[in-house]
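To: structure desk
From: M.T.
Subject: fold request, one chain
Message: Could you run this one when you get a chance? Sequence is below, nothing fancy, just the single chain.
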Amino acid sequence: MASMAAHADAPAPAHLQLRNVGKVYHSMNGDLTALANVNLDVREGEFLSLLGPSGCGKSTVLRCLAGLEDASSGQVMVNGKAVSGPPEGLGVVFQRDVLLDWRTVMDNVLLPFEFAGRRKLTDMKPHAMQLLRMVGLGAYADRYPWELSGGMRQRAAICRALVDEPALLLMDEPFGALDEFTRDQLNLELQRIWAETRKTVVFITHSIAEAIMLSDRVAVMARNPGRIVEVIEIDLPRPRTLMDRDSARFSQYSAHIRAIFDRMGHAAQ
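Reply: Done. Structure tokens follow.
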């Protein structure tokens, strides 16, 4: 697959800070505390995973970072500025690819430029094609999403998130709905893309193996209320391969994280 170096004018990777972040949802049935006292620093150019069981507030943290929801208390900052809406230089990949089936793959990738109206689409097509080639979709630029497999659709969604050279990439269980083989291949692909572009990435997962495989650090969350209970440095050489999951060091990280979940009474993959 083609290689792609970051553009010279690409923004520097983002630095994220969460300070005593809380989130309370109000309803007729009473208040629900989704997050309580969440504190986290995400370093520039770091790949950090939020790992935890369903309902622990991982997606709520991501939505607060993306400016899609306001924290009820505390501070959410990107590059030292309080987040009050989607920050500049943001790319987001959701579990569902949310591609538009009536638009070609190329037109889907170019959608951020069309919404922003900042650049001529024809000027950005070479860059979009470079991204598509990088993920093995160069021959599918004129195809429609309904002609692609689930894994190919997610590759296109990643290209769309990267096309505007974001400083920050937020990924909400992007491979959770895929089969194990496709998920493994996309983990390797994402690791390679991150190594080439060095974006700051916050990646949500409930898979221990996926978090260890991809991350510089893993922030383990508990629920009721959602909170971070431990942040673990993953000191494994890169690039990592699927065979590394059988190594003693990988197994030690996995056992350590499983012990955290056992103490909390939570299940994890």
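Reply (cont.): Residues 16 and 110 are 27 Å apart (CA to CA). Let me know if you need anything else for the meeting.
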